[in-house]
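Today's session is about reading a structure prediction critically. Students often jump straight to the picture, but the first step is always the sequence itself: look for stretches that repeat, for charged clusters, for runs of hydrophobic residues. Only then move on to the predicted structure, which in these notes is written as discrete structure tokens rather than atom positions. Here is the chain we will use throughout the hour.
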Amino acid sequence: MALRVFRRRPTALAVLEGIDLSGKVMLVTGGDGGIGFETTRALALRGARVYVGCLATETGERAAATIRAEHPSADVRPIAFDLGDLPAVREAARTLDEPAFHAVICNAGVYGGPYATTKQGFERTFGVCFLGHAALLLALEDKLVKGAPSRVVMVSSDNHRWPPTLERDALPTPRDRYTELRAYGQAKLSCVMLAKALDARWSSRGVHAYSLHPGDLVSTGIDKDSWVLRTVMFLAKPISPSAAQAAATSVWAATTPALADRGGGYYVDCEEVSPSPAALVRDDVEWLWNRTVDWLARDAP
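Below is the predicted structure for this chain, in token form.
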């Protein structure tokens, strides 16, 4: 991973300068902290109604209150659900009382710690970073189509480049092959592939999908389960982007007119770059899509 140390980066608010999001309805998972909070804040301050996907209502309410203290008319609405519990994800989507959504930004994630599984038995990193978001998006498909032109933004990571292939025979990562980096890399590669698969299927109905890398070693709290990552992030903090800077590509991908007629791309610092070669293997993208549909139909690995 090459640190982009000396590049000048705009904040999320700066990227949205001059853009009026009044009347737009958006959802940001993990919107109660870190990059997700800054994503929510920027969108809300530019006029969007933003639903804050969060694990606990209290943290979502605190985030909303902080944004309203800055801008009293901001429309920020917490919705609590666990991305590691597929029925709970679908129930949360069902309770969203909106006829249409204009953007869903899949920002939430987990990293590291000992091997663990979600409530339905999927490896936790894969289940939260990828599969829970897939369930959410499929549950919101009709609302995204009604909001067209609308967008899906998958917050991935340049860590999707390792392992260098999609490990079909070990996905989700099993206990005997689990390492923090392997599980995270496979989950984030899957996010890039999901954006490609969704764009191929939904773009004809006005819904485009994108994936992105928010920045290198951004201090967001995702390191709480990994002492190794905590140490690396602490040492890198003086040269790493802030959460507000790291949110810039997310809000840009969700709103910029420059992407109105195309999707499926991978972005870093608001510019399209090539993802890993693995993300471009069409057979693997289709295999992952079909397996994902099957996993979600059974709610079991």
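Discussion point for the tutorial: Confidence is low (pLDDT under 50) at residues 1-6, 232-239.
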